[in-house]
Amino acid sequence: MYKLVKPFLFSLDPESAHRLVSGGLRSVSKLWGSKRLLKSIYGYHHPALEREVFGLKFKNPVGLAAGFDKNAEYVEEMAALGFGFIEIGTVTPRPQPGNDKPRLFRLVEDQALINRMGFNNQGVDVAATRLRHLKNRQHIIIGGNIGKNKTTPNEEAVSDYIKCFDALFDVVDYFVVNVSSPNTPGLRALQDKEPLTHILNTLQQRNLKGGVAKPLLLKIAPDLTDLQLDDIITIVQDTGIAGVIATNTTIDRHGLRDEQRWRAEMGGLSGLPLARRATEVIRYLATKSNHAFPIVGVGGIHSPQDALEKLEAGASLVQLYTGFIYEGPGLIKRICKKIAHG
């Protein structure tokens, strides 16, 4: 089915196509029995898929990465397509429009995207309200990806993360601290050891509410050096956070079919060109830390084999975004089958 509509969708600009698909899916899902039908087509259940990671039980290890559902508008619909968990956001304390358009580009020959969206979202309170009113919330594991507003100075960034953390605490199952997007000026400077440790320690201190802590993860860039990755391992262990998501998008343009053209286009690159580096980062973190903490693998997963490579490198779970755009919802089921049966 997706192969039939993909040429039409790819004839539209990427943001228009996203609105059309997500809005259409939401409209269809309002029809009686539609979610059950979607689950029967795209869902795949098998005991071998079940995972327990950072204290949460996942029905399968294939999740939707942050960025697709920034405002928690399509959680139930995405779950009906077979995802084992959904990560909403990145959300910020205050609504913001993001960067000027155009800000999302398809690199079809490379099976990639470049985005410089800039944390466009309706604000954390809107997302929290939507999550609070979900009908089938108990069957869906939801992560909250949190960031800072563009106008907030880095010296005050921790206050933005606190606001998002507090607002989402009762409505998400885990948190992801995003300091690795290349599309908010200066944000990646927060990956340095001192500011990052301060943010994570501050959130960890608040991470006891009613005696129950929520898993707190850190999303990192693929462009970190080995020395910086060593720092990440130390920070994870010193702060006691639950794990790492590896990786975000890259600013590297090496190896693209039209490298000269896309080098001038600002933003983060995702998709197949990121696959090898994301896997290298996963393997480095897992090996150097002696598998001391869970890793969620994301970056360039366009096939079941791509997912297996992330898992074999040391990931406990994987996430899709660009591969989902290029391959459609059937990719989730194919990956789950491959994991379950080899």
TrEMBL record:
Annotated GO CC locations: cytoplasm; plasma membrane
Annotated compartments: Cell membrane; Membrane
Keywords: Cell membrane, Flavoprotein, FMN, Membrane, Oxidoreductase, Pyrimidine biosynthesis
EC assignment: 1.3.5.2
Molecular function per GO: dihydroorotate dehydrogenase (quinone) activity
Biological processes, Gene Ontology terms: 'de novo' pyrimidine nucleobase biosynthetic process; 'de novo' UMP biosynthetic process
Active site: S181 (nucleophile)
Ranges for domain Dihydroorotate dehydrogenase catalytic: 49-341
Chief location: membrane
Swiss-Prot/TrEMBL cofactor(s): FMN
Binding site for FMN: A66, G67, F68, D69, K70, T90, N145, N178, K219, T247, G271, G300, Y321, T322
The keyword Membrane appears for this protein: yes
Reactions performed catalytically: (S)-dihydroorotate + a quinone = orotate + a quinol
Pathway given in the UniProt record: Pyrimidine metabolism; UMP biosynthesis via de novo pathway; orotate from (S)-dihydroorotate (quinone route): step 1/1
Positions of substrate binding: K70, N115, R116, M117, G118, F119, N178, N183, N248, T249
Topology in the lipid bilayer: Peripheral membrane protein
UniProt family annotation: Belongs to the dihydroorotate dehydrogenase family. Type 2 subfamily.
Function: Catalyzes the conversion of dihydroorotate to orotate with quinone as electron acceptor.
Alphabetical list of PANTHER family matching this protein: DIHYDROOROTATE DEHYDROGENASE (QUINONE), MITOCHONDRIAL, DIHYDROOROTATE DEHYDROGENASE (QUINONE), MITOCHONDRIAL-RELATED
Assembly behavior: Monomer.
HAMAP family membership: DHO_dh_type2 (MF_00225)
Protein's name in the database: Dihydroorotate dehydrogenase (quinone)
UniProt source species: Parapedobacter koreensis
